[in-house]
Known about the structure:
Blueprint: E1 8-12, E2 33-34, E3 37-38, H1 39-49, E4 54-59, H2 64-69, H3 74-83, H4 86-93, E5 101-106, H5 113-118, H6 121-124, E6 129-132, E7 136-138, H7 145-156, E8 159-165, E9 175-179, E10 188-196, E11 207-215, H8 219-223, H9 236-246, E12 249-253, E13 258-260, H10 264-277, H11 282-295
Parallel strand pairs: 1-4, 1-6, 4-5, 8-12
Antiparallel strand pairs: 2-3, 6-11, 7-13, 8-11, 9-10, 10-12
Helix pairs in contact: 3-4
The structure holds 1-O-phosphono-alpha-D-glucopyranose (G1P).
1-O-phosphono-alpha-D-glucopyranose binds next to strand 11 and helix 9.
Amino acid sequence: MQNKSVKKAVFPVAGLGTRFLPATKASPKEMLPIIDKPIIQYAVEEAIAAGIEELIFVTSSNKRAIEDHFDSNYELESLLQKKGDTAKLKLVQHTIPENIVCTFVRQKNPLGLGHAVLCAEHLIGDEPFAVILADDLLDTSKTNCLKTMTDLYKKHQYSIIATQIIEPSESSSYGIIKPQRGQSDNNFIKISGIVEKPQPEHAPSNMAVIGRYIFTPKIFNYLRKTKAGAGQEIQLTDAIAQLLKGESVYSFLCPSKRYDCGSKIGYLEATLAFGLKHTDLKEQFKKLLKQYSLEK
Ligand code: G1P
């Protein structure tokens, strides 16, 4: 039998984004821009570059802007066409390539990340799939972490979780993996356990889960049975802990710079870093930064 490739990705985007109020009162946090592109578009571009062809957004009320963003906007397009502004026309027409399928499914109750992924089960079927948390913005300029993961999946057919090394004191903000003993290479290792947001004294390692996952469809068997855990939510991490008892689950140590756009300071850092690389703005922006640091 031929090895399967990962062609579908789930984007859980139902969260309320209360950390960014009042900005997120009426618009989705995933639509906050880094310079001129919404956070969700960076995640979608990364997925498409990794070979994903079907995007499944798990949404809630107040998230219609995401659907509109990846749809065509007839009024805007005909206006730009009349003006002959082809550069801007290209920008609005190409939020998503023609061959990519977008599907939207509602998460009716905010029961947690595990529950959000379960809402996409009927659209995944018996296929491997990726889960992408758009809040974790990755710099793909040198390497696309998800692409490496989809390539590894094609070869090995294991579920793969992206991780990064954190300070031990930060463990209570992440899922933390337990590497199986006796493995020398840290980059791609089998994991023997995983815990959601443990206190540092209970953390099994300093390897934290970041928002990129690839799963075999078996994960749904466990998600269906998972009860509310940390934060009274149905945790994806708890289903992974069960999955790895029945089949191999690997960790891939993601080498990309990650920006935690779920926090204000992470969002600010991403804006700073992307501004310093922006083709049209970087020179002016550097000058501004210099000016501000001299004023200090
Ligand atoms: C979620 C996961 C957690 C993971 C994190 C990565 O937590 O539950 O295991 O480490 O994403 O960003 P959240 O940040 O949604 O609280």
